[in-house]
Every structure is written in structure tokens, then in C-alpha cells.
Design brief:
5 strands; binds D-ribose; five-stranded parallel sheet; Ribose 5-phosphate Isomerase B, Chain: A
């Protein structure tokens, strides 16, 4: 499995812990930045990660900003991306099982480093699209995208 990760200055606080988790799980990583705490624009990093996932160069993506909201919204503008903005293990599991999320967004000002690792693990370990009902709804999202 290959995962792309990206963040802005608000999310960088979580990055090292998540990188460590991914390495420990033997996951290949593409880190698109940012690489220090200097103020940067989160849409740039949301898009970079989303494009890698959308193109099939990475299986999944993780994006981090202050709240997870801005970078998650940016990622969701890229075709084929379903980025769940998650705050805890429950929402991480649900966005895999119900939304087949191929990306998640976390907030460095919302969750602790310790929690971020548990949240990412919950998402990676959850089965995707649990049941036909959820798959139908995800297909409906794709239809909306194709009409846009
Ligand atoms: C940056 O200050 C902040 O706006 C950003 O990290 C994020 O929270 C946006 O949604």
C-alpha cells in the first residue's frame, strides 16, 4: 500500500507521528510537504495529495491542516476523491465503512498527536463500504460529480 500525505503549518504538528505509524505498518509514503512551520496555503497540499490518489499513484491520502476542514474541502474538489474530515476513531471508521473514503483530513488544532495515530489506524483497519446500501450511496456521489 502507498499513501500520500500533505499538510499546512496548522497540521504539521501531527505529521511525524503519522509518518512513524505508516512506516511501522510497512506502508510506502509520498510526503508532498509542507516541511516546516512557515505559513503556507492549505489548498496547494490538499490538491497535491488528492491528485496522487485520483491518478492511482497512491492508494490513499492523508491531509492535515489546523482543523482538517480547509484541506479536506480542497481535496474533495479533485475528481474521484472522497475525503472524510474526521475528528476521532468513530468518524474515521465510519468514513471508511459508509463513504469508502480514499482520503482523510485531520486538524492539528483539534486532535492530539496520540489521537491522530489512533484515528489513522481506525481508518486503515476499517472495512471499506460495508454493504450494498452504502455502496449505492457512494455511487450516487460519483454521479453528482459526473454531472458537475
Ligand atoms: C491556517 O491558519 C488554517 O486556516 C488552516 O490550517 C485550516 O485550519 C483551514 O481550514
Amino acid at each position: 500500500m502507498k499513501i500520500a500525505i500533505g499538510c499546512d503549518h496548522g497540521g504539521i504538528v501531527l505529521k511525524d507521528s503519522i509518518l512513524k505509524l505508516l512506516s511501522e505498518r510497512g506502508i510506502e509514503i509520498i510526503d508532498v510537504g509542507c516541511f516546516d512551520g512557515e505559513s503556507v496555503d492549505y489548498p496547494i497540499y490538499g490538491e497535491k495529495v488528492a491528485r496522487l490518489v485520483s491518478a492511482g499513484e497512491c492508494d490513499k491520502g492523508i491531509v492535515l491542516c489546523g482543523t482538517g476542514i480547509g484541506i479536506g474541502i480542497a481535496a474533495n474538489k479533485v475528481k474521484g476523491i472522497r475525503c472524510g474530515i474526521v475528528h476521532d476513531e468513530f468518524t474515521a471508521r465510519m468514513t471508511a465503512e459508509h463513504n469508502n473514503a480514499n482520503m482523510i483530513a485531520l486538524g492539528g488544532r483539534i486532535v492530539t498527536k496520540e489521537n491522530s495515530v489512533n484515528i489513522v489506524s481506525a481508518w486503515l483497519d476499517a472495512p471499506t463500504c460495508d454493504g450494498e446500501r452504502h455502496l449505492n450511496r457512494v455511487n450516487m456521489i460519483t454521479e453528482i460529480e459526473s454531472k458537475s
